[in-house]
Design a protein that fits this description.
The chain is of the alpha/beta class. It folds into five domains: 128 residues, Tetratricopeptide repeat domain (Serine Threonine Protein Phosphatase 5, Tetratricopeptide repeat, Alpha Horseshoe), CATH 1.25.40.10; 175 residues, Vaccinia Virus protein VP39 (Rossmann fold), CATH 3.40.50; 57 residues, no CATH class; 34 residues, no CATH class; 100 residues, Outer Surface Protein A, domain 3, CATH 3.90.930. It contains 24 helices and 14 strands. Strands 3-2-1-4-5-7-6 form a seven-stranded mixed sheet, sandwiched between helices. A three-stranded antiparallel sheet has the order 9-10-13, covered by helices on one side. Strands 8-14 form a two-stranded antiparallel sheet. The radius of gyration is 27 Å and the shape is globular.
Length: 561
């Protein structure tokens, strides 16, 4: 075939593909344009035409992928950006749509689209507010009949009791300071914001443990705030100020600036998580920390499958209360082999109607992979670090691989790629816990176990409690909602579940003195116990590895653990 015949065939295929598109025969149009791209993968006209077919046939994700390929070729004209923005709008990614529209040259059509996106923000926000006004989350206090004296009731295993007595690492202000700050700040000087405090389970527990700290709790639902106030009153907590506020509309003029902002399980429900992050960033002090949790896409696949199923089965039902009853009825009909067992790992199904609404009927939710979440914070000009404790230790997934070439191939990957592999291989990561901060702030670089460890000042986080029973002394490692620690621990890099760590009496005495006031050498001299340096080093290494013990170069006079 000569060149002229070849070009004529390409032109004919292009003509037939366009004709199929104009006639509404989208399948043949897609087939034709795909064939053309096999011949010339970077042809801009073909990429745009294929994107249009995908858009008009309702295949918005495929449309977005092709338009992003088109942008990679250097084509960023207005029509491409508008179509990309429209595609994002159709899958409810409003922040991405807004970014596209704002890159377009000034014209009347785009201004109307921007206005429409902002109206959609309000509509989505109103829906979310209505949901949490009707179904405050979590409302286990009233639904499960938690006794008022639950703190002193050892038979009461409520979430509230566990959250007060067993602090969650990424929500505990002492832990956050120990792990991320150069110097430990005096508690009475701290201002803490809980953005999206809900019914106050985590917030009230924190405020109870640290009465000298100034806390502020905000939520879009006044009903949730009222439950949080009642919870605080029952515990005698007086160091929280509550406000009904929308994170999407927050400014520093409203609330001032904060040392730590906690936002757990909130950002992914916002109409635009990016705007939420930017607003919270404006409320952070220059050396402030934002600690949060958002849902992970890979580990919540079952949830999204079930949500799609419920949409198909009850899409004609308008009232949320009716949807809840029908959802419960459907769940009652399912068998374990129909993936119900997998769904039951989520505690929400056991805490009443509000749990079902939040888990399966939520008005708004955006989940993330670690890569997507990192990109989101990068766009907001913030750094992000993940809490690797249970789930995202990439090296763990290489321990069983004996082929040295494969291990080396993994090691040369950047951290983001390693995390992505870990996340895929794990498959069950349904939430990402993280700490973020402004790029201008340089938090404490986590020291490896220091060579001159005897001259460092150790602090043991109070979330790990020193206890004694008929078996002897031990460290209770049941924290983080009562979960046990799973971490690569001593130097042989073995992995084990730790619920308690047995220690002897002299080691217990040593750890009771780990409050940042004395160096290791000073403590050993003071207690004069029969402690082997080698054994002590192994214990401290293990505690450091599981984020229970922290070393500081200088004395920490302000620590009050």
């Amino acid at each position: 075939m000569n060149i002229n015949t070849y070009l004529q065939n390409i032109e004919e295929l292009n003509r037939l593909s366009i004709q199929s598109y104009q006639n509404g025969d989208y399948d043949n149009a897609i087939f034709g344009f795909d064939k053309l791209l096999e011949l010339n993968p970077y042809d801009r006209d073909t990429l745009y035409n294929l994107s249009k077919v995908y858009y008009d046939s309702g295949k918005y994700e495929q449309c977005i992928n092709k338009l992003l390929e088109l942008l990679d070729t250097g084509d960023s004209d207005d029509s491409t950006l508008i179509l990309l923005g429209d595609s994002y709008c159709n899958i409810n990614k409003l922040s991405e749509a807004l970014i596209c529209y704002k890159r377009v040259s000034d014209n009347k059509e785009v201004k109307q689209k921007i206005k429409k996106v902002k109206e959609l923000y309000k509509i989505e926000g109103d829906k979310l507010q209505k949901q949490y006004m009707s179904y405050p989350y979590p409302n286990t206090w009233k639904n499960q009949g938690i006794p008022d004296d639950y703190l002193n009731n050892v038979d009461c295993n409520s979430r509230q009791r566990r959250q007060v007595l067993y602090p969650t690492q990424f929500l505990d202000i002492n832990f956050l300071q120990l792990k991320y700050l150069f110097e430990y700040k005096e508690l009475r000087k701290l201002r803490i914001l809980n953005a999206g405090c809900g019914t106050g389970e985590g917030l009230v527990g924190n405020a109870f443990r640290y009465p000298e700290v100034e806390y502020v709790g905000i939520d879009i639902s006044s009903n949730s705030i009222n439950i949080a106030k009642e919870h605080a009153q029952k515990l005698g907590v007086t160091n929280i100020k509550f406000y009904q506020k929308n994170i999407m509309e927050l400014t520093a003029d409203d609330l001032g600036h904060f040392d730590i902002i906690i936002s757990s399980g909130v950002l992914h429900h916002l109409p635009d998580p990016f705007i939420g992050i930017k607003n919270l960033k404006e409320l952070l002090k220059e050396d402030g920390l934002l600690s949060g949790m958002v849902y992970g896409t890979i580990g919540r696949r079952e949830i999204y499958d079930f949500r799609d199923m419920f949409k198909l089965m009850i899409s004609d039902v308008e009232q949320t209360s009716e949807k809840v009853e029908m959802t419960k009825c459907i769940l009652d009909c399912l068998s374990p082999w129909q993936r119900l067992d997998r769904l039951k790992i989520y505690n929400d199904l056991s805490i009443g109607d509000q749990g079902i609404v939040d888990l399966l009927l939520n008005e708004r939710e955006t989940s993330y992979t670690t890569a997507q979440l990192s990109e989101l914070f990068e766009q907001a000009d913030m750094k992000i670090e993940f809490h690797d404790d249970n789930y995202l230790d990439p090296q763990f997934f290489m321990y069983g691989i004996k082929d040295s070439a494969i291990r080396e191939r993994f090691k040369i990957l950047n951290q983001g790629a390693q995390r992505k592999i870990a996340e895929i291989l794990n498959g069950s990561i349904y939430k990402h816990c993280f700490v973020s901060y402004k790029k201008i702030f340089k938090p404490k670089e986590r020291l490896p176990f220091p060579e001159n460890w005897l001259d460092y000042y150790p602090i043991i986080w109070e979330g790990a409690k020193l206890k004694k029973d008929n078996k002897g002394y031990f460290i209770d490692l049941i924290f983080k909602y009562g979960e046990s620690v799973s971490k690569v621990v001593p130097e042989d890099k073995s992995r084990q579940k730790l619920r308690r760590l047995a220690i002897n009496e002299n080691e217990a005495l040593f750890l009771r003195n780990c409050g940042g006031k004395f160096a290791v050498r000073e403590i050993l001299t003071e207690i004069k116990g029969n402690l082997e340096i080698k054994d002590m080093r192994k214990l401290l290494f293990t505690l450091s590895k599981i984020d229970v013990l922290f070393f500081f170069e200088h004395k920490q006079q302000n620590y009050n653990g």
